[in-house]
Fold this sequence. Notes:
Elements: E1 4-10, H1 15-26, E2 31-35, H2 43-49, E3 57-62, E4 75-78, H3 80-90, H4 101-126, H5 132-143, H6 161-178, H7 188-196, H8 202-212, H9 215-219, H10 223-233
Parallel strand pairs: 1-2
Antiparallel strand pairs: 1-3, 3-4
Helix pairs in contact: 1-3, 1-6, 4-5, 4-6, 6-7
Amino acid sequence: MSTELITLYRFKPSPYSQKVDLALVEANIPYRTHEVDLLNKPEWFAAKVHPVGKVPVITYGPANTDPTNPPDSVVKLAESSVILEFIADLYPESGLLPKDPIARAKVRFLNEIVSSKLAASWYAFLRGVGPMDDVLKGVEAVQDLLPDAAGKFAFGDTYTIADATLVPVIARLTITYKYDIGKFSAGEGSQLGTELQKPKYAKFMQYSHSMLERQSTKDTYDEEEIVTLWRKFFSKD
């Protein structure tokens, strides 16, 4: 494996790109990044890397491969969840997935709840097409699966792909209420933040605070950049 290297094609504001970044950073896996501006995608990206032009994508092959012209012989993978599983299997010692089959299934189930309950309801709220109550229900669904002990990860005592999946959603959910940015009515974002301070969401918020303070989150996430983008795309004017 010494001559092989992962190249991550990412758009840093994307939560899906951050998922992969987080897993690689937390597992201390050598990799390189190549930024792809989704607002001005280069022609070579669809032609040479991903025909649909989505990110994230990874290639896995010789370290000296030109990222703008990877040969067909290198592994090319899209879809963040597939990539996370690949990385966890490629580096089993990383702990990104537990070894026990039951524990692995529980991590995958948590990922499914994050995607289908929390991320989906938050994004609908952000776009002004879903109610705040659905976001709170999503928070509760995730919270029910988090460990009771303070300072724990999403599952067990090790950072897993469940944390890598959940943290980008939490970071952007926080922006939603911290800056009241979204297509919802003015003040609804702030109201969501007020609701989340209630004791019933304490476990979720404790986990959120702990994860947002981790160095891996800070290294893979630029709040100011996302706020600037969102103010442009989710303007209420």
